């Protein structure tokens, strides 16, 4: 399937189904469990549909605020704030030419790629407010992922 066709297919999906699709054959079980318990965290593999970049809370929130104030807003993917751990996770496109060394960009950044898993709540907006994990940015179009080059530029500009 070509990337434009795949993007169109993802855009028509409910957000929870798109996110759970990273679980492969277990995606249905993930969506059903989220329906019963929206605060449940699914262990989803990175490097399948997306990679993730973890940042410390303060710089992660500052980068999000800065990028939201630019014309980059339409290309920002989901961003998760884990208040209890003090981290912000960005879902980013998988880099075709291999992942960047994020620690060279900022020593507090960690890339979660193939072989890594993240515990994620549903992308649906009904997430209970008492959950320590909250999506602080949901893209307008399902399937949108932050381009790693844009996030790198945001991190470098925030330093």
How does this structure look, described?
The chain is α+β, with helices and mostly antiparallel strands and 159 residues long. It is built from six helices and seven strands, in the order αααββαββαβββα. It has helices at residues 3-11, 15-20, 27-36, 57-68, 102-105, 148-158, and strands at 42-45, 51-56, 79-82, 87-92, 110-112, 117-120, 133-137. The chain has a five-stranded antiparallel sheet. A hairpin with a 4-residue loop joins strand 3 and strand 4. The relative contact order is 0.23.
List keywords for this structure.
159 residues, alpha+beta, five-stranded antiparallel β-sheet, 6 helices, 7 strands
The pLDDT mean sits at: 87
The global form is: globular
Number of DSSP-assigned strands: 7
Number of helices: 6
First and last CA, distance: 39 Å
C-alpha-based Rg, rounded? 15 Å
Q: What share of the residues does DSSP label as strand, in percent?
A: 15-25%
Main β-sheet description: 5 strands, antiparallel
Q: What sequence of helices (H) and strands (E) makes up the elements?
A: HHHEEHEEHEEEH
How many domains make up the 3D coordinates? 1
Q: Going across the major beta sheet, what is the strand order?
A: 5-2-4-3-7
Helix content: 25-40%
Structural class: alpha+beta
**Poorly predicted ranges (pLDDT <50, ≥5 residues)?**
none
């Amino acid at each position: 399937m070509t990337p434009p066709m795949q993007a169109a297919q993802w855009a028509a999906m409910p957000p929870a189904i798109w996110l759970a699709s990273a679980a492969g054959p277990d995606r249905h079980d993930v969506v059903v469990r989220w329906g019963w318990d929206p605060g449940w965290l699914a262990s989803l593999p990175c490097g399948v549909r997306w990679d993730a970049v973890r940042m410390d809370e303060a710089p992660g929130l500052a980068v999000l605020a800065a990028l939201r104030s630019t014309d980059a807003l339409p290309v920002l993917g989901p961003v998760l704030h884990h208040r209890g751990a003090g981290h912000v996770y960005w879902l980013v496109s998988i880099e075709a030419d291999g992942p960047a060394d994020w620690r060279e960009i900022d020593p507090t950044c960690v890339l979660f790629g193939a072989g890594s898993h993240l515990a994620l709540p549903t992308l649906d907006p009904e997430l209970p407010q008492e959950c320590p994990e909250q999506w602080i940015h949901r893209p307008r179009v399902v399937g949108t992922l932050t381009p790693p080059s844009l996030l790198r530029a945001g991190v470098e500009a925030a330093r």
